[in-house]
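Researcher: Sequence recovery benchmark, item below. Answer with residues only.
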C-alpha cells in the first residue's frame, strides 16, 4: 500500500487564522482531505485533530508535514516524546522551516539526515520552550507593574447611582422587592447584583 502524506496546522486561539500554514501546504501539493487542523494551545498535546492523526490516521511509512516545530508543541519534553513516537512507529516527520527534513533520502545516507535533524530539533525545541517561558514571565511582569501603579485588573467596578444607599436600605428592610429596587435605580439584574457584591 502506498504511503500517505498528512499535513498538520495549529494556531493557539480561535481568533488566529491558519492561512499561512495552509498556503505552505498547498504549495507542496496538499489537498484538503490530507490537512488536519487545531485551534488549541501548544502547551500540551491534548488536541482533537492531533490525537486523531496519531490514533486513527498515521500508519508506518506515512509522512507528517508541519510548517514549524512549535506547531507540534511548545514544550521541549513533548517534542522529544513525539519525535520518539514517530520514530518508533515508522513515521517520517518533515518540517517546512527545516529544509534538511524536506529532502529525499538517498539509500545509505539516512543516518546523516537523522543526525542533522536531531541536532536541529533539539535546538529548536529548546528555543520553543524558552519562548513559552518568556511569554509567561512577561505576562507576570506586566500584571505586577500594573498592580504597582494601582491599576485595577479584571472587570472595572461600576459606579453607584446617587440614590443607591436609600434604595438598598429600603430593599434590605423589605420595604420593596429586588425587582422594584432595580426599576427605581434603572438597572439590569446583572449590574444590580454586581454592585451589591462589590459592597
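Model:
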Amino acid at each position: 500500500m502506498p504511503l500517505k502524506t498528512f499535513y498538520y496546522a495549529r494556531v493557539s486561539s480561535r481568533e488566529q487564522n491558519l492561512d499561512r500554514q495552509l498556503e505552505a501546504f498547498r504549495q507542496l501539493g496538499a489537498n484538503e482531505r490530507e490537512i488536519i487542523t487545531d485551534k488549541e494551545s501548544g502547551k500540551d498535546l491534548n488536541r482533537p485533530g492531533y490525537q486523531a492523526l496519531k490514533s486513527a490516521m498515521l500508519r508506518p511509512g506515512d509522512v507528517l508535514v508541519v510548517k514549524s516545530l512549535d506547531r507540534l508543541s511548545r514544550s521541549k519534553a513533548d517534542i522529544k516524546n513525539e519525535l520518539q513516537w514517530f520514530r518508533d512507529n515508522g513515521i517520517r516527520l518533515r518540517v517546512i522551516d527545516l529544509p534538511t527534513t524536506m529532502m529525499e533520502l538517498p539509500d545509505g545516507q539516512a543516518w546523516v539526515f537523522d543526525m542533522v535533524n536531531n541536532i536541529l530539533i533539539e535546538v529548536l525545541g529548546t528555543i520553543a520552550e524558552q519562548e513559552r517561558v518568556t511569554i509567561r514571565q512577561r505576562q507576570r511582569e506586566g500584571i505586577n507593574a500594573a498592580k504597582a501603579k494601582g491599576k485595577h485588573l479584571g472587570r472595572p467596578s461600576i459606579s453607584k447611582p446617587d440614590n443607591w444607599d436609600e434604595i438598598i436600605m429600603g430593599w434590605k428592610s423589605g420595604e420593596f422587592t429586588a425587582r422594584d429596587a432595580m426599576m427605581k435605580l434603572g438597572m439590569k439584574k446583572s449590574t444590580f447584583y454586581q454592585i451589591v457584591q462589590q459592597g
